[in-house]
Structures are given as C-alpha cells and as structure tokens.
Specification:
Layout: H1 2-19, E1 29-31, E2 36-41, E3 57-62, E4 68-72, E5 74-78, E6 84-90, E7 96-104, E8 107-117, E9 127-129, E10 136-138, E11 143-144, E12 148-150, H2 157-164, E13 171-175, H3 195-210, E14 214-218, H4 260-277, E15 283-287, H5 299-316, E16 322-324, H6 336-340, E17 347-352, H7 357-372, E18 376-382, H8 388-394, H9 399-409, H10 422-427, H11 433-442, E19 452-456, E20 460-461, E21 471-478, E22 481-488, H12 493-497, E23 508-512, E24 519-526, E25 531-532, E26 537-540, E27 547-551, E28 557-564
Parallel strand pairs: 1-8, 12-13, 13-14, 14-15, 15-16, 17-18
Antiparallel strand pairs: 2-6, 3-4, 3-7, 5-6, 7-8, 9-10, 10-11, 19-21, 20-23, 21-22, 22-28, 23-27, 24-25, 24-26, 24-28
Length: 566
C-alpha cells in the first residue's frame, strides 16, 4: 500500500510538471489603454514554440461593441520546473465588459469576462494618424508632436531617457540589429528568437513608459542584406542566417525580398514581435528596415515586399500601431510605391551632408507631403554621416543641429527631424540645451487640427524700403495666434566652417498676413539662449487682418509668439 501511494504521488508530480495545471492567470479588472497580462504554464510540445503561425495559441477577444479580435500568446521560455511559459499582453481601447477565450490548437482552454473601466486622463494610449499631416494623435484624442533624437543602441537607456525628459523630448528610434537586441541571427537560427534580447526590450519599454518616451522600433537594418561593405563596413550578409552558407534559403542577399521561405520566416518573426510588444503604447511605430534602399535588390520586388509585409502586420496587430520603413534619398525608387500603400502610415527618409539644412529640410518636407499626401518624418539627419568626431570638427557650434530642429518645428511634420550621433556628439559635447530651448518655445503653440504651416516673404529694411532682408521666415498659425521663426540666410554651418560669420540683420518691418482683426501681444524669443525678451509689445492688425511687426536687429535667428488679446 505504501509503495502504491508513493507511486501515485510520483505520477501526480510528473503530471503536474508536464501539464502544470494549465489554468490561465488573468486580471479580474482593467483600465482603458493600460496593459493586461494573461499567463499560463504548460508544455504544449510544439516542434518550435516560437512559431505563432503554425501553433495556434490564442486569446480571442470580444470587445464591448461586440467586435472581435485575436491576439497570439507568445512563448517566453521555461520556468524553473522546465514548464513552458505562455503570455498574452492586451491594451484595451474601449471600456466596458470584454469576453475572453483562451484557445490552444482549436480547443477551448478557458473563458472569462473582464470589466474595463474608462481612462479619463488625457494623452493616453498609442499614436494614430491625424487628419492634419503636421500631427499625430494619441488614442485618447489629443494631438501629438514628437521632439527627440535617435538612440538606436545603448548599454544604458535610462541614462539617455533621464537626459531626454527634462528637455521635454518624447520620442526616439531604437534598432534591433546584430549587435543590439539581436533577435534572430546566427546564434539562434531562423525562426527561433533570443529571449535575452526579448526580455531586455521589455525592460526598455518599461523605462520608456516611466519617462514618457515613444519608440520607433526598427526591426532590421540595411547591413544584413548588402552586396558590399559600406563606409562603416556594415555588410553582415556573410553572418546572416538567411544566407545559404549558414543553412538559410537565400543564395544572394536580394533574395530576402523574393524567396518564399524567407518571406514566411519574416512574417513569423514579425508576428512574434507584434504579439509580444504591440501592447505597449510606447511603440510609436513598427519600422521594417533602417535605410532599406541601401540593401541589395531591385525596385519592383522591394516595393512589393514592403507592401506585403506592411499589409500583413496591419492584419495581425490588434493594437494598430503605426507602420513604416525608412530610406535614404539615394535610391528612393526602391520604396516609392510601398510608401504609397495604404498599409504604410507615414513616410520616413534620412538626410545628411546638406550645406544649408533649414531651407532644404523645409523644401523636402513640403515636396514629400505634396507627393505622398501622408505624414513625413525625417528619421535621421546630420551635417556629416561619417561620424560624431567629424561632425564636431566641421560644426563645433552645432549650427546644423540647431537649424535642423527649428526648421522641423516649423514644417508640416508630426515628428521634428531626429538627429544622429547621440553619444559621441550631442551627449559628448552636452548639446542637450538645443532641445530645451526648442521645447520651451514649442510649448507656447497650442496643437490642434487647424494648425497651419507657412513660409512668408521676408520684410523690408526700415532704412531702405526697397531692400528685402536676407531671411528665411516661417510661420505657424494656431487658433487666432501665430508663431514665427526668422533666420539669417547666412547662419549656416558650412559658411561658418569657411570662416564667414553671419552679419547682423538690422531691424525691419515684417508683414504677417491672414490674422484676425484686433490687438495682439508680441513676445520675442531668442532661440540661442532659450529666453523670452523682458518686454512684451502690443500691435494692432490692419483692416485686412494683416499684422506689421518691427523685427529687432539680430545676428543668427529670432522667434516670437503672437497672441490675439482683443
């Protein structure tokens, strides 16, 4: 009898280890836009537990409006008892009663209801496309504009996020690549993912939530599929697990975009990433490739691949995060049709080594908006692509950085251009104050869907009424108010590098058209110091609603806020 009892006990223990009870741990209540976590532990004995296409482990969701959605559980490794851990993460957009079903390979595992209470706070949830191409919107409805920079890889993200928060930065780009957050590479093989990297990305998203920073998550970079080494010797094709020499399906790197097995594997990877991280409102966007146009491949298959993948991700992402890719302007034909696809939410290009950054940035943005009729984002920019030290050598006064972000603020874009060289230029030489000064001013601009961006003809000298001043003048109209940025045309990094300091611009009259009839307060601001002038002026508009401002003399640039007071 004693032996029988011991035997039964051993059998019970073995059954418990193999099945682990199987019950689902789920929250009993939730809040709109806040992540809910569903977990169970069970050995499902799949050949590859990472494969969310072949393995049907799903959270089926009936929302309060009776619409249906399906979210995959993802495999998250083994516990200390060698039992598989399965998890689903869901952020509800509606409030009310949700019905959930947990399905494993067609079998109902568990069913339950959860009540989600309304979140009445502002600026909640992820980002959505706005009807105004100069903005995104929060899921809770409020407008959003991004100010940030690239921090594509870092050992300590909290270090950078702590630097970003006090200067009111709210967005960054982060790469998944062979040397950072490596997800699927030669150490894992195709279709199996590095859980150490996966867990680290979880921690980065928690930090982003803590510091209120959105992340454009770049899921691959161009170096994994180049024909030749670039300037930074970034060719990783020889290490790529998709390469036939490493057991993959592709003989040439351009086959990444045409080989059916490769495409199936990419979809599986995207499904795992989207299922695991899509819950986080900190995910501003999925970005397929950094600078996809630099990869080997012809235009038609590359455009077709991007369109197919964008449509796929849109079809599986129950949280509907934004979708894009990025390109240089070297071979834009490789992504031009993909960017036109309705599955691509916005267009992202990178620009370096432009002599006169401000007008170029503005002209490029306007041309792309007109062509694509979509939001445009400059995902990277800088005066020099060959390194932070080289950037400092030719622009130690960070004129290019200054002009790029101020031109971006006054352009029709939802994200101010994102600078590069975060570590060995901006942080090394402590240029964070540039973003502080920009943010102080930008906070004076009320964002709404009626905001408009315009370029004005520069005014004429007080001393000589026929002399038009050599200035770039940009205007933002908001409510019944306006914001101006006036830049000396000679204030360029390249001219200063050549020893040509900008001459002083004498005071002049600047006309602001399309204002309401009334009285306006004028608050001048120095973008070089981040300070408003002590004295606020009052000016009456003309009968036609135009306003004539006396611009004080300056050397580099000036800005002002114009508010209707009566």
């Amino acid at each position: 009898m004693k032996i029988l009892i011991i035997g039964l006990a051993i059998c019970f223990i073995l059954f418990t280890v193999s099945y682990a009870g199987g019950s689902v741990n789920y929250p009993k209540e939730g809040e709109q836009f806040k992540t809910m976590v569903f977990q169970f532990k069970e050995n499902l004995n799949f050949n590859n537990p990472f494969d969310l296409e072949a393995n049907i482990v799903e959270l089926q969701i009936q929302q309060p409006d009776k619409s249906l959605a399906t979210l995959s559980f993802f495999y998250n490794g083994m516990n200390e008892r060698n039992v598989e851990k399965w998890e689903a993460r869901f952020s509800p957009k509606q409030f009310g009663v949700y019905n959930f079903k947990v399905i494993t390979n067609g079998m109902l595992k568990e069913r339950f209801d959860v009540t989600i209470k309304q979140n009445k706070e502002t600026k909640q949830g992820g980002l959505l496309v706005s009807e105004n191409l100069g903005l995104f919107n929060y899921e809770s409805g409020e407008p959003f504009r991004g100010i940030g920079l690239n921090v594509c890889w870092a050992d300590d993200y909290e270090y950078y996020f702590k630097k970003m928060k006090p200067v009111r930065m709210n967005i960054t780009r982060i790469w998944i690549c062979p040397w950072h957050l490596s997800f699927e590479w030669n150490n894992t093989g195709i279709g199996r993912y590095d859980l150490k990297s996966a867990n680290r990305l979880d921690e980065i998203l928690k930090l982003a939530d803590k510091y209120n920073i959105f992340i454009i998550l770049c899921m691959d970079y161009h170096g994994i599929g180049q024909k030749r080494a670039g300037f930074f010797n970034e060719n990783k094709w020889l290490e790529n697990p998709y390469n036939v020499i490493n057991g993959g399906p592709c003989t040439l790197p351009e086959e990444l975009f045409t080989n059916d097995e490769a495409k199936k594997s990419f979809k599986k990877k995207y499904k795992y990433i989207v299922s695991r991280y899509g819950h986080s409102s900190r995910i501003a966007s999925w970005e397929f490739y950094n600078e996809a146009d630099l990869m080997a491949g012809k235009s038609i298959p590359m455009n077709q691949w991007h369109t197919e993948m964008a449509e796929y991700v849109q079809s599986i992402d129950v949280h509907n995060r934004l979708v894009s890719t990025s390109s240089t302007r070297n071979y834009p034909e490789k992504v031009v049709d993909a960017f036109k696809s309705t599955a691509m939410d916005f267009v992202m290009f990178h620009e370096y080594n432009k002599i006169n950054i401000a007008p170029y940035t503005i002209d490029l943005n306007e041309a792309l908006v007109q062509y694509y009729q979509k939001p445009i984002v400059i995902g990277e920019f800088g005066v020099e692509y060959r390194g932070g030290d080289r950037t400092y050598e030719i622009d130690p006064d960070h004129v290019g950085l200054h002009n790029g972000i101020w031109a971006g603020l006054f352009s029709e874009t939802p994200i101010i251009p994102l600078s590069w060289w975060w570590d060995n230029y901006i942080d090394k030489y402590d240029f964070w104050h540039e973003y502080d000064y920009l943010s102080i001013f930008s906070e004076q601009i009320n964002l709404n869907n009626q905001i408009k961006f315009s370029e004005l003809n520069s005014g004429y000298s007080e001393k000589n009424s026929t002399q038009q001043m050599p200035c770039l003048v940009r205007c933002i109209y908001f409510d019944n108010n306006a914001a101006l940025w006036i830049k000396n045309e000679e204030y360029q990094w390249a001219l200063i590098y050549e020893g040509k300091e900008p001459i002083m611009i004498d005071s002049f009259q600047q006309k602001i058209p399309n204002m309401k009839k009334g009285t306006f307060s004028i608050s001048w601001y120095d973008p070089q110091t981040g300070k408003f002038f002590d004295k606020t002026l009052e000016v009456n508009s003309d009968k036609d609603g135009s306003l004539n401002l006396l611009v004080p003399s300056f050397t580099k640039d000036l800005a002002c806020i114009i508010r209707k007071i009566k």
